[in-house]
Amino acid sequence: MTGPRWLAPLAALGGLLVLLPLAGLVSRVEWSEFWSLVTAPDSLTALQLSIRTATAATVLTLLLGVPLGFALHGMRRGPLAPARAAVRAVVLAPLVLPPVVGGLALLSAFGRRGLLGEVLGGSLAFTTLAVIIAQAFVAMPFMVVSVESALVARSGRREAIAATLGASRTRTFVRVTLPGIVPALATGAVLAFARALGEFGATLTFAGSLAGVTRTAPLDIYLLRETDPEAAAALSLVLVAVAIGVVALAYRPVTTRTPR
Amino acid sequence: MRLEARVAVTSRGVDATLSVGAHRTLALLGANGAGKSTVLESLADVTRPDHARIVLDGQVLAEPGRRRPVPARRRGIVLLSQDDALFPMSVLDNVAFGPRSAGRKDAEDVARTWLDHVGCLDLAGRRPGELSGGQARRVAIARALAAEPRVLLLDEPFAGLDVEAASAIRALLRELLAGTTAVLTTHDALDAHTLADDVAVMESGRVVEAGPAREVLSRPRTRFAARMAGRVLIEGTMRGGRLVIDEVSSIPVSGGPGAGSRAAVAVPPASVAVALESPSIAGDRAWILDSVTTLEPRGDHVRVHGALVSADVDPELASELEAGARLWCGVPRGLDAYAL
After folding, report:
1. Average pLDDT for chain A
2. Cα A249 to the chain's mean position, in Å?
3. Which residue, A161, B260, B267, B334, has fewest beta-carbon neighbours within 10 Å?
4. Do A164 and B78 touch (CB under 8 A)?
5. H or E element: which one contains B133?
6. Minimal CA–CA distance to B268: which of B315, B226, B329, B296?
7. Chain A residues in contact with B126 (beta carbon < 8 A)
8. Considering only CA atoms, which of B112, B335, B125, B104 is closest in space to residue B238?
């Protein structure tokens, strides 16, 4: 399908809007020092912390987001069906919530004076665990959406046949349903990882910026921006590369062999 | 394993009653959309019917007023669906799925035995996507039987297969279904003839005729059942060895009930001759004056449906006919008449 000619210049402008800032970033990088900047102890600490926490957050979204996706899908029939849209809106809200608002919300739940402060016997805030929770909070919607739409696309027929063959629900879930939605799980995990890696506002609000404990790469970049712009640009470029790689991985056309 | 069932699914207009004798095969014969698949899915608890009473060998699986029907996984009723619904795992794991679910230690041996039975042992390591349509159907059959079903349900087992694969699988099923309690759906009288002991004819969600296959297929009692059996039903009243159809037409028949009783003969449309003018010599046929209602193209011939009789004719002859046209239908003399 080709649109009218006047779409082309607008498309070019759109492309530039994305490309120019990236080009600017690249132009700021001191290539001779790139490697030493990225492997400086502080940078490495921040990068490693980012990767560790983002991985943990992704595991958490798999563990909790997949059941949530199933629950949302299960609500389409039965007495809870009318509430489904509302529940989905709440679960997906972190996707569009200003991150700083998310951070405040997390503080008021898990902070020292938060709802669970007493139960937890202290505050979770300003710990590495807080970083992971903040990242999972903003990243989980990707997993939920991914799983739910994959389930909608399934007819449920294989599950029904598995039951007639004598399989328990758990067996059907593990052996038939989960293998059937692996592409959706992979997409959800990759997007959640990317979102967790880039998380800034909620982390800063809820977890603070303690070097080695809660200062992830994006926070480090924000601090370096004033004191050491070259290092900030170098670290930024690393995150840009990861982001582009992740998107390319998650959005390549999925060639699944649909079993007959 | 005697199965007695009445299932109703209101949204699909289905309310069917059927029974299957132990170790017998019942064919649900009906046109597309008659509700055959819905009945099978209800029996297997793949579809939850609005109303169901299902008794298998004295065990009540579902009953109105019963709090919860017995769930699919405890029924021992396995559904072989048209789409095969193979799982995303190797062929061997697919077939071993039932025995493994039952906790059998020798599940893999059982699977190999059944794969061998259906001639697919060499495909054990393949994935479902790497199978042809015929191979996938064979694997699905092996998977269903490996679960040792008390009742096997087969939904259009030859749907979507090419002619060769369908013939091969028809022969395979003929062997495997012997001694199995089974229900299969089909719109083809041939399947009912070759695979079933009993036939239940379904029309618009209801069983309209049921009985031993030979009886239902050769002596149908309704026009619909006759059509499903590939025959046309000619109804009339017995009088002196003849079946009187209307004021002008009657045909000599053999057998049949006493004079004055309603009776019928069932004749394949291919054996009915057609003439546009009153035949001067009757020959070995009895001629019935009829008028055309519809013309149904069927590949290399046209089935002419009249108000009384249907006949298969050459397209060239059919081109001279139109709805309302008069025609003479020549029916063989001495057909076997039976009481209605």
Report:
1. 89
2. 14
3. B260
4. yes
5. helix B133-146
6. B226
7. none
8. B335
How many domains is chain A partitioned into structurally?
1
CB contact under 8 A, B85 and A157: yes
| Of A161, A189, A190, A179, the residue nearest A257 (C-alpha) | A179
How many other C-beta atoms are found inside a 10 Å radius of the C-beta of residue A76? 12
Secondary structure (3-state) at A9: helix
Calculate the average pLDDT of chain B.
89
A198 located within any domain: yes
- Give me the amino acid identity at A181: I
Whether A208 maps to a domain, the answer reads: yes
- Give the pLDDT score at B58: 87
CA distance B133 to chain A (A): 8
Higher pLDDT, B160 or B184: B184
Which range, of A85-94, A241-250, B159-168, averages the lowest pLDDT? Answer: A241-250
Packing angle between helix B91-101 and helix B133-146, nearest 10 degrees? 20
Inter-chain touch A164–B72, beta carbons under 8 Å:
yes
Residue type, A6: W
Top residue of B74, B78, B91, B97 to mutate, by most chain A CBs within 10 Å, is B97
B85 CB near a chain A CB, below 8 Å?
Answer: yes
| Residue B242 DSSP SS3 | strand
Q: Which residue has the tokens 């994006």?
A: A218
Kindly tell me the sign of the dihedral angle through the C-alpha atoms of A251, A255, A258, A259.
negative
Above 70 in pLDDT, residue A253?
no
Question: Is the Cβ–Cβ distance between A131 and A208 less than 8 Å?
Answer: no
At A218, the pLDDT band (50, 70, 90 cuts) reads: very high
Sketch out chain B's domains with CATH numbers: 3-222 (3.40.50.300), 231-339 (2.40.50.100)
Residues in B touching A159 (Cβ below 8 Å): none
CATH of the domain at A241: 1.10.3720.10
b (16+ CB within 10 A) / e for B117-153: bbebbebbebbbeebebbbbbbbbbbbbbbbbbbbbb
Beta bridge partners of B14: B9
Q: Do B79 and A162 touch (CB under 8 A)?
A: no
3-class secondary structure, A114 = coil
* Rounded Cα distance, B258 and B328, in Å: 28
Angle at CA of residue A60, ends A57 and A62, nearest 5°? 115
Q: Quick one: tokens of B263?
A: 């009776």
Q: How far apart are the first and last CA of chain A?
A: 31
| Cβ-based contacts of A176 with chain B (< 8 Å) | 87-88
B257: Cβ contacts below 8 Å, ≥ 6 apart: B238, B263, B337, B338, B339
Determine the pLDDT at residue A256.
47
Domain with A185 in it: 57-250
pLDDT band for B259, please (50, 70, 90 cuts): confident
Give just the sign of the alpha carbon dihedral A249, A251, A257, A260: positive
